[in-house]
Amino acid sequence: MGVVVPLEDRTGEAGLAPLLALAAPGMERVNAFILSRTGSDVAMIPEVANHLISSGGKRLRPMLTLATAALTGYSGDADVRLAAAVEFMHTATLLHDDVVDGSEMRRGKLAARMLWGNEASVLVGDFLLGQAFKMMVEVGSLEALRILAEAAAVIAEGEVMQLSAAKNTTTTEDDYLAVVRAKTAELFAAACEVGPVIAGRPKAEQAAARSYGMNLGVAFQLVDDALDYGGREAKLGKKVGDDFREGKITLPVVLAYRRGTPDERAFWKRTLEDGQVEDGDLEEAIRLMGKHGAIEDTLARARHYGAIARDALGLFQDKPDVKALLDVVGFVTARAH
Amino acid sequence: MGVVVPLEDRTGEAGLAPLLALAAPGMERVNAFILSRTGSDVAMIPEVANHLISSGGKRLRPMLTLATAALTGYSGDADVRLAAAVEFMHTATLLHDDVVDGSEMRRGKLAARMLWGNEASVLVGDFLLGQAFKMMVEVGSLEALRILAEAAAVIAEGEVMQLSAAKNTTTTEDDYLAVVRAKTAELFAAACEVGPVIAGRPKAEQAAARSYGMNLGVAFQLVDDALDYGGREAKLGKKVGDDFREGKITLPVVLAYRRGTPDERAFWKRTLEDGQVEDGDLEEAIRLMGKHGAIEDTLARARHYGAIARDALGLFQDKPDVKALLDVVGFVTARAH
Question: Which residues, by range, are in coiled-coil regions (chains A, B) (predicted)?
Answer without folding.
Answer: none
